[in-house]
């Protein structure tokens, strides 16, 4: 029997046949507050998540001056630039996040949207990098991540199979995990195409495949455990009514706890697929089966 390839993230092996690696994406749901970030980390740890993920951008590189100058009413100012700058943590904030995650015993890493952000996060020795769907076609950024020699998790939202194949060619198949994803916020159930997990597994049999979701609700994310996903990533929030562009597509703490619980139940229920009579069924055979 062929041995499925695994990828080591921190102390855990991630791959098909292993317990699902659950990522709580804090992203920008902290709204620029380290205290809020810590509360989200606490909620993720309480739920039994394996990792928390942030997003890192160098604002002046990722956005044009024209984009930053656009009017935008936010709690942090009247322009898009006011918002983008407020949502970015600097070294002191990430050092505290790093310290706190180590204290709580949970992995943390980030999706970096530019090369300078990769260098910034590299200072903290992350167990892996996440590459967002929006960056899948940026060959230079993919190659720059690759130079760091760390495992890479790549989301595949808003991408064709041809674009995904090209990204895999750039990154190579070693230490790579692909996440099936739909990049709408929030996603409708009819947009999720969960069978895409099968398609990616078939096309890339030597790469572990998982799921990154932006839908409302938990059932579809839990279902991916039965479809063979080895990773699930969902945004986490303290309250979906909080201000912020990602809050509505996020999961509140009690929901995250239920999702992880149900994923673990599904994993136990899947079994090994071998049909046999269980010892616990023998008394029922004696009681109910007239012809043996």
Structure description:
The chain has helices spanning 34-47, 59-62, 65-69, 80-86, 91-104, 115-122, 139-147, 161-171, 189-192, 196-203, 219-226, 253-270, 282-288, and strands at residues 7-9, 12-14, 21-27, 51-56, 71-74, 77-79, 107-112, 129-131, 152-155, 176-181, 209-213, 231-235. It is of the alpha/beta class. It has one domain (7-288): TIM Barrel (Alpha-Beta Barrel). Strand 11 (209-213), helix 11 (219-226) and strand 12 form a beta-alpha-beta unit. Helix 1 (34-47) runs parallel beside helix 12 (253-270). The protein is globular, with a radius of gyration of 21 Å. The two termini are 34 Å apart. The mean pLDDT is 95.
CATH T-level fold name: TIM Barrel
Q: How do the strands of the widest beta sheet line up side by side?
A: 7-4-3-12-11-10-9-8
Seen as an oligomer or otherwise, the chain set is single chain
Give the low-confidence spans: none
CATH superfamily membership: Aldolase class I
CATH top level label: Alpha Beta
Distance between the termini: 34 Å
What is the number of strand segments?
12
**Strand percentage:** 15-25%
| Major sheet description | 8 strands, parallel
């Amino acid at each position: 029997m062929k041995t499925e390839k695994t990828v080591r993230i921190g102390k855990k092996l991630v791959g098909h046949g292993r317990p699902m690696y659950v990522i709580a994406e804090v992203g920008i749901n902290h709204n620029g507050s380290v205290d809020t970030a810590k509360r989200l980390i606490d909620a993720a740890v309480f739920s039994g998540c394996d990792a928390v993920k942030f997003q890192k951008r160098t604002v002046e590189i990722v956005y044009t001056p024209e984009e930053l100058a656009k009017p935008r009413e936010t709690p942090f100012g009247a322009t898009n630039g006011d918002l983008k700058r407020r949502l970015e943590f600097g070294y002191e904030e990430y050092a505290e996040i790093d310290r706190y995650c180590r204290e709580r015993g949970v992995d943390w890493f980030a999706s970096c949207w530019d090369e300078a952000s990769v260098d910034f996060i590299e200072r903290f020795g992350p167990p892996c990098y996440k590459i967002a769907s929006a960056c899948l076609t940026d060959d230079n950024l993919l190659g720059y991540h690759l130079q760091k020699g760390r495992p890479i998790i790549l989301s595949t939202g808003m991408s064709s199979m041809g674009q995904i194949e090209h990204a895999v060619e750039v990154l190579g198949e070693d230490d790579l995990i692909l996440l099936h994803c739909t990049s709408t916020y929030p996603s409708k159930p009819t947009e999720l195409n969960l069978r895409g997990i099968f398609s990616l597994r078939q096309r890339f049999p030597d790469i572990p495949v998982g799921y990154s979701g932006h839908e409302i609700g938990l059932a579809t994310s839990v279902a991916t455990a039965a479809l063979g996903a080895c990773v699930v990533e969902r945004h986490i929030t303290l309250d979906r009514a909080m201000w912020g562009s990602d809050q509505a597509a996020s999961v509140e703490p009690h929901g995250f706890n239920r999702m992880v619980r149900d994923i673990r139940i599904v994993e136990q229920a899947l079994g090994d697929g071998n049909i046999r009579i269980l010892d616990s069924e023998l008394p029922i055979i004696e009681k109910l089966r007239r012809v043996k």
